[in-house]
Amino acid sequence: MLRRSLLAASVLLPLLPARAADPTRGDEPESGMRARIERYEADHEALARLHDLELSPARRARLREFHAGRLAELARVDFERLDQAGRVDYVLLRNHLEHELKRLEVEAARFEEAAPLLAFAPAIVALVDARRGMEPVDAETAAGALVELKRGIERVREEIEAFEKSEQEEGGDPFVARAVANRAAGTLDDLRGALREWFRYHDGYDPLFSWWAREPYGEAEKALGDLAALVRKELVGIEESDSDAIVGDPIGREALLAELAYELIPYTPEELIAIAEREYAWCEQQMLAAARELGCGDDWHAAMEHVKDQHVAPGEQPALIRELALEAVRFLEERELVTIPPLCAETWRMAMMSPARQKVNPFFLGGETIIVSFPTDAMSHEDKRMSLRSNNVHFCRATVQHELIPGHHLQGFMARRHRPYRGLFRTPFLVEGWALWWELHLWDLGFARGPEDRLGMLFWRAHRCARIITSLGFHLGTMETDEMIEHLVERVGHERSSAEGEVRRWVRGDYGPLYQCAYLLGGLQLRALHAELVGGGTMSEREFHDAVLREGPIPIELVRASLTGAAITRDHRASWRFQGDPQ
After folding, report:
1. CA separation for the pair 404, 400 (Å, rounded)
2. Is the pTM of this model over 0.90?
């Protein structure tokens, strides 16, 4: 798609002379990895601000040149002269550059898949690239290009309509796969936006341009919108207004393996699913034990229903969240588990989530601001009931600390004050894994007050197991979205609407393919590291947690290397089998 992203945008600028050696680089001491990383990020963002058209081949060529050049520069660093922190930074940057190059290849291949629906796109790319290059525009020629653009769009439309007619009569394979069509529809929206930006740049400022181009632009722009609507209706199977549709885009096993390598996770998708199933079996045994305590026998679903009905009244959720947040801080400080800077404890805030946003996130979100999901008066009766039950007291008590302290708020507070340059390498395995680790650890420390609290904690733990099983199954092509929803309802205990919201959020492309796996797997990595350092007597609880926070949001295998002094090589790859070998 043509997403305007600081991490993916650049185009050759034909008016500039050939690039000479950069005099700002000089001979940097090998200890200056931080400066090297900060300079890379600033340079990359400068390219991105100038060029933001993902579909442009020239952009991809420029980015390949840029990243390959920085990788070659990095190879000339004297790795042996770096200290441990410098070696970690070296591996982080090398891994990032290699991943960016690989991502460009994947991006090009994904655009190629959608080529039958985007045959006219080079015409728009040419117009936008010329504007980015500040090339003068010939108004009459531009108008002619817009007329040809509309014809190209109409030819694609005619091909789709003809194919759909023959397909209905004869059957057979689709014009393109549904996921590809959905991806192409988004690209058409972005192309429409890029064309609109190109037109507005010239319109009115150049009266001759407006005289020639205004009418053909309007027709081409409308044709783009009509084509996007047709693709969604005929090839994806959704109406333009259907914002609740769940359409995903699985990436396949090879792409999953590449992403796991980038995250320094030395397991196959199948091995990770086995780990999740093992963890879920533990959860199920604990849910059965809690159900028996509550007099529900072996029916843990009935026990979970009992827990869901223990919610506060409408309007009372903010007071509950505040008290749960303060309770978690008291628990941590009494046991000296982690340093909580007074300013961190002072500066968190609260906001309420809109009904529309709750459709894709039925639970609350966190960080410096905790965003609370709870029913509003505008919701249907059924949606109100489901939201009340999904955000009951015991579910909330299990995760308020995940979002605030010691979870994401404390984590973000420290990340902005310790090695902030490592934010470039932000990984959910540390970001979400840190917050999830505290759910695991607080269970072991007896945070739950009784079987209802335990069921609240187990709901989320089982949910994180399900995230691994379902999201990897989806990307492997072994699980459809309706099966993912059923899995959450039957094996975790979700309300159906919350399960649909979760799956909708997971598959629609807002998150990376491994993001849903990262919660529990990152937590298990930190559990293994905690056992090694705290269980082994090397660090206290507070020392361990403070040290992890000071490393930044990087792959946990490299956090381990920093904290243990483990050997790191120039070509370091994933090797830490933090869960052993799944049986």
Report:
1. 6
2. no
The reply to whether 533 and 502 lie within a common domain is: yes
Domain count, the chain: 3
Is residue 542's pLDDT more than 60?
yes
Residue 569 lies in a domain: no
Q: Are residues 295 and 182 in the same domain?
A: no
Q: In percent, how much of the chain has pLDDT > 70?
A: 92
* Inter-CA distances, 392 with 188, 221, 315, 493, Å: 42, 48, 13, 13
pLDDT of 23 reads 35
Please tell me whether residues 390 and 502 are part of one structural domain.
yes
Q: Which of 138, 414, 75, 475 is nearest to 273 (CA)?
A: 475
Q: Are residues 187 and 295 in the same domain?
A: no
- The answer to whether residues 126 and 14 touch, using CB atoms and an 8 Å cutoff, is no
**Residue indicated by tokens 């809109």:** 354
The DSSP code sequence of 309-348 is T--PPTT-HHHHHHHHHHHHHHHHHHHT-S---HHHHHS-
Residues recorded for the chain? 583
Containing domain of residue 146, as a range? Answer: 116-236
> Is 230 in contact with 160 (CB distance < 8 Å)?
yes
